[in-house]
Amino acid sequence: MALADPVVGSKSFAAVAINCAAKAGEWIKTKLGNYQQLDLKMSSHDLVTEVDKGSERLIRGLIGTHFPNHSFLGEEGVEPGPEASAKALEDVREAEYLWIVDPIDGTTNFVHGFPFFVVSIALAHRGEVILGVIYDPSKDELFIAEKGKGAYVHGKPIEVSKEDTLQSSLVATGFPAEQRYALPLNMKGIQHLAPKVRNIRSAGSAALHLAYVAAGRLSGFWEIGLNSWDLAAGALLIQESGGRVTDTEGAEYHLGVRNVVASNGRIHDDLIKELREAADNPS
Ligand code: IPD
Ligand code: CA
Ligand code: CA
């Protein structure tokens, strides 16, 4: 099928993604404070509940109904840890159509009833992200971007913020679950950047932070050790709202990026430069 005509049956890719995110998000909300089983994955900082698994099942089932020949990469279908994630991505990366799903991004928040978690759904065509949907059920905010068509929340176009210095920037990051490499490196970045930016936020959902960069609510975001399902939808949202997404070395975003820098574009080079200095600091 031609990329220009992304319609199977009567439903477009975007309509299916919106439907999946909305249905899963509403269901997750009904389970807030009400989950039955909490398990640990890679470490005591990496949580999963039956609601994460149920959300992924629901989304996978709906997508499979509409697009039975498409490939699917969901967090809960992959063994924990960076090696297994990288391998799972490599196995499907070049698929004609690949859906990339984080059924709850911000599980720790979900578990604690902290209303900052989302469903993140992206569609890639031969390795290039062409659709991204991020749904925040707590605020009933749905962010959507299609390649070349801009980014929107509730049908209103969004654009990145205008800050052009780190000093005037509000940036965000995370505290990665992987403790040997990712967490210490991220901590170096926090320590180095805190005095140089207006302030730093860390609210516990990489995908929602990316959506906030796209919507101009944050000037930038970085985190070490993320996975394709944390990033794919948010990266397209930012690109389509005028921002920039690279790895920490400055290479443009692709599905394999794990160490991400995302911004309004204006502060991007400065952010990368400071993160490099932070990483090079031996202490
Ligand atoms: C996590 C969140 C968190 C980030 C972690 C991710 P999960 O995803 O995005 O903000 O700091 O690195 O793993 O486990 O809630 O899907
Ligand atoms: Ca995640
Ligand atoms: Ca998740």
Question: Overview of this structure, please?
Answer:
- The chain is α+β, with helices and mostly antiparallel strands.
- It folds into two domains: about 5-155, Fructose-1,6-Bisphosphatase, subunit A, domain 1 (Fructose-1,6-Bisphosphatase, Chain A, domain 1, 2-Layer Sandwich), CATH 3.30.540; about 165-280, D-Maltodextrin-Binding Protein, domain 2 (3-Layer(aba) Sandwich), CATH 3.40.190.80.
- Helices cover about 35% and strands about 25% of the residues.
- The chain is built from eight helices and 16 strands.
- It has helices at about 15-30, 50-65, 80-90, 105-110, 180-195, 205-215, 230-240, 270-280; strands at about 5-10, 10, 40, 45-50, 70-75, 95-105, 120-125, 130-135, 140-145, 150-155, 155, 170, 200, 220-225, 245, 260-265.
- It has a seven-stranded mixed β-sheet with strand order 5-6-7-8-9-10-11, with helices on both faces. A five-stranded mixed β-sheet has the order 13-12-14-16-15, sandwiched between helices.
- Helix 5 (about 180-195) crosses helix 8.
- The longest helix is centred in the first third of the chain and has 18 residues, at about 15-30.
- It is globular.
- The model is unreliable at about 1-5 (pLDDT under 50).
- One calcium ion (CA) binds near residues 102, 105 and 230.
